[in-house]
Design goal:
With about 220 residues, the chain is mainly α. It is built from eight helices and five strands. It has one domain. Helix 1 packs antiparallel against helix 3, helix 3 crosses helix 4 and helix 3 packs across helix 6. The longest helix has about 30 residues.
């Protein structure tokens, strides 16, 4: 009996070690993948108003998004930036590159799900909350009391993206359609009234469903 328990414990330990190694390997794969070489020209054609430096920032935001999708597993993560979503759309059009990337980064194909096609009215809202918490964790930001929004949530405002999603830390400035796009209150996403982990189960009115999301398939 004791030998069986020891053997079972060894199997569990080996599985945990393998899981951690696999997670680190996939995260490194995402960080090292040559997104710029594949997408820069396509993004330039889609968003000609962006400078090379701004396109590089958008592609860094896409890498951030893929990393938080990796962290979320199969749970829905909404897309908080129109500019980054444009880059994701362009990547999907490179079908072989994208399929190969998905295998290395996630071990499965990462689908893009438009907000209007999600399974329930709360799925997009849960997804944007999860995106906020994971993006904040990635940049060392307190999601409940942020001093600044994480890059994915700041992207469209910083780059003056027409039709973008604008997130305000000051809720009095949110809730209106601005000249660039829809504006939302980021502190509501940050679960000021309470939330648990990164499960997306918090209460509160949340704006900014994003254009789509990953996971949940």
């Amino acid at each position: 009996m004791i030998k069986l328990v020891i053997a079972l414990a060894a199997v569990i330990l080996a599985w945990l070690v393998w899981r951690q190694w696999s997670a680190r390997r996939r995260a490194a794969f995402i960080d090292q993948y040559p997104l710029t070489g594949i997408l820069d020209q396509r993004l330039a054609a889609r968003r000609p108003e962006l400078t090379p430096e701004q396109r590089a920032e958008v592609l860094a935001g896409l890498r951030d998004y893929f990393q938080i999708c990796h962290r979320a597993g199969r749970r829905m993560v909404a897309m908080p930036s129109q500019a980054v979503d444009d880059a994701w759309h362009e990547f999907i059009l490179f079908t072989r590159h994208y399929a190969r990337f998905c295998r290395g980064a996630f071990g499965r194909f990462l689908h893009h799900t438009p907000a209007e096609a999600m399974h329930s009215p709360t799925q997009a809202s849960d997804g944007i909350k999860r995106a906020w918490r994971l993006a904040c964790a990635r940049e060392g930001i307190d999601p409940r009391k942020p001093q600044r929004p994480p890059r994915l949530f700041a992207m469209d405002a910083a780059l003056l993206i027409a039709g973008g999603f604008i997130y305000h830390l000051d809720c009095l400035a949110s809730g209106r359609d601005g000249a660039m796009g829809a504006s939302f209150c980021a502190s509501h996403i940050g679960c000021g009234s309470g939330c648990s982990g990164d499960s997306g189960s918090s209460d509160g009115d949340v704006g900014g469903d994003g254009d789509g999301g990953c996971g949940g398939d």
